[in-house]
Amino acid sequence: MTRSIWVSLAMLILVAVSAPLIGSTHIDLGRAFAGVSPDSEILFYARLPRVLLALLAGAALAVTGVLFQCLLRDPLAEPYTLGVSSGASVGAVLAICFGIRATGLASLAGAAGVLLIVLGIAWEGRRLSSFTLLLTGVTMNSMSFAVIMFLHNLATFSQSFAISRWLMGGLDAIEYSTLGWLAAAVLPVCAVVIVFARQWNLMAVGEEWAASRGIATTRLMTIGYIAGSVLTGLVTALTGPIGFVGLIVPHALRLRLGADHRVLLPCSFLLGAAFLCVCDTMSRTVIAPTEIPVGVITALCGGPFFIWLLRSKRRSVWL
Amino acid sequence: MSFRADRLGFAYGLEDATFQLPAAGLIAVVGPNGAGKSTLVSIMAGLREPYRGSCQYAGKEVRQWPRREFARRVAFLPQFLRLEFPFTSEQVVFMGRTPYAAGWFESPADREAVERAIVTADIAAFRSRDFRSLSGGERQRVILASSLAQEPETLLLDEPTTFLDLKHQLSMYKLLSELARKGIAVIAVTHDLNLALQYSDRTLVLDRGRLVADGVTREVLTPDLIHTVFGVRAQLHTGSTGNAWMQYDA
Question: Is B188 helix (H, G, I), strand (E, B) or coil?
Answer without folding.
Answer: strand
